[in-house]
Amino acid sequence: MKELFQTSAKLKGAANISYNLASQLTDLLELRGALQRAEEAAAHRKATGTKQIVGRHRPR
Q: What's the domain of life for this entry (predicted)?
C-alpha cells in the first residue's frame, strides 16, 4: 500500500512538471508569433519606406 501512495505521488509530480512545461511552451510559441509579426511589419515598412506609427493599436 505504501508503494502505491509513493507511485501516486511521483505521478502527480510528473503531471505537474508536464503541465508547467506545456504552459511555458505555449508562452514561447505566442512570443515567437509576436516576434515574427513584428519582423514582418519591420520588413514591410523598410520595403515600402513607411514609418512606424507609434501609439496606435489596430485590432487583429
A: Bacteria
